[in-house]
Amino acid sequence: MKIALDCRYIGRSGIGRVCKGIADNLDYDKNEYYLIGKREQLKNYPAARIIEDDTDPYSVKGLLSFDKRINKECDALFIPNFIVPFGVRLPVYTVMHDLMFLDVKETTKGLIDKTVKKILLKRCVKKSRAVFCVSAFTRDRCRQVYKRYSDRFTVNYPGIAEEAKAFIANNGRAEVKDKKNTLVFVGNVKPHKGLKTLAEAYKLLPKGMYTLKIIGEKDNFLNGMDYADIQCEGIEFTGRISDGELFSEVAAAKFLIQPSLYEGFGSPPLEALYLGTKPVISDIPVFREVYGDTEAVFFKTGDARDLKDKILASDPQVDRGEQILKYDYRKTADNIIGRITGKC
Questions:
Q1: How many CA atoms lie within 13 A of 274 on its CB side?
Q2: Is the pTM of this model over 0.85?
Q3: Residues 6 or more apart whose Cβ sits within 8 Å of residue 187
Q4: Residue 321: its pLDDT value, please?
Q5: Beta-carbon count within 10 A of 228 CB
């Protein structure tokens, strides 16, 4: 079977990680794969046919640039997001990470932006043969909003990045005694990530006890949040860093803090557990679903004092355990291809 994958997301955080995780775990001997994206980013997939496309999938040009040859040559198209390019005439399979643009006001820039995203979301659902949701939380939310298409939504969890596995293979897991007095946050700097709560909690900790490193793009502020809200002595913005640097920072930290108000899955705590760093995370439904049987510590969502108390009271020792090993990109990829080929 000839299957095309929209890999233009590779190189981005979040969705890009999921896209790469799937591409890394395909069996290139069983099907013929056409990978759409930048040739330089896809050079590590020599068994695939590369369809050069350097457009931004979020742009108007990206929506309109679909290579029509794919319609003739391929049997199906897989997209790791909800944005289905115009011009697609073959069966489409997509991934729904969340309905954040509908559920969180601050993630859209006014009525027009929200309307456009709402149209694209519904168009995705209508065109997709199957929509793979990254959690039961996201699946259930989709079924609430798109009741007519509820049978199209299925849960397909992301996995642990191959780069994290390689880091552990090369470096091992840090002992608690060797960890630095740092707290880390990983993710985009946006209001729903709860960084204001994190900054408030940090200011309540004994001065000098920890350095807080915020790893992610700091130019992504949207309405409802100001850079000054999370500025404080001891808080360091690293900006975007390489995977090796990221995993090194997480592995060396005492705790990873994920104070999100809303997520579709939330991968940083999963990678932290794999790397041997205990996550302290907000008590939101999807985190209970994904991390409820792990050693992650939950704090009351949006409560800076409770977060501070949990940081001070928690033992940084963590046993990775078997619970997180079920999140495997080989399973993720197999579920997708099995559905496309009709084998599951």
A1: 24
A2: yes
A3: 13, 193, 215, 216, 258, 260, 268
A4: 72
A5: 8
